[in-house]
Amino acid sequence: KNEITFKKEGELTLFRSKDSVIQTLDIEIADNDYERETGLMYRHSMQEKQGMLFVFKESKPRYFYMKNTNIPLDLIYLDDNYKIVSFQKNAKPNDETTLPSHANAKYVLEINAGLADQWTLKVGDSISY
Fold this sequence. Notes:
Shape: globular
Radius of gyration: 13 Å
CATH superfamily: Protein of unknown function DUF192
Strand order of the largest sheet: 5-4-6-3-2-1-7
CATH class: Mainly Beta
Number of strands: 7
Strand content: over 45%
CATH architecture: Sandwich
Order of helices and strands: EEHEEEEHE
Structural class: mainly beta
Helix content: under 10%
Number of domains: 1
């Protein structure tokens, strides 16, 4: 299978709850069924300051898994106010175990595993894109 290359579709900024910028990322946006189902499958790497933002129509509990995903990831679940509600850190490549949000989420940001801790992201931090 051909490598799927990253396609920058926007920029996303992570903010501390007190409005200081944590990090700015280039993002791909998954906002239709096909893109949300495919996500980062079949890719073999992603740059540190790249990520994929999943955009859903409504806020509800989300369940992700790592089927056909070759990159270890941190999953960041966000509510309809763009605030972090929960994490699933260090999701293992190709693991089909369910990774629940444990909260209502409208957005899910996937970044390379370890970055959520490296950037000390916390529940209540937010994004804009």
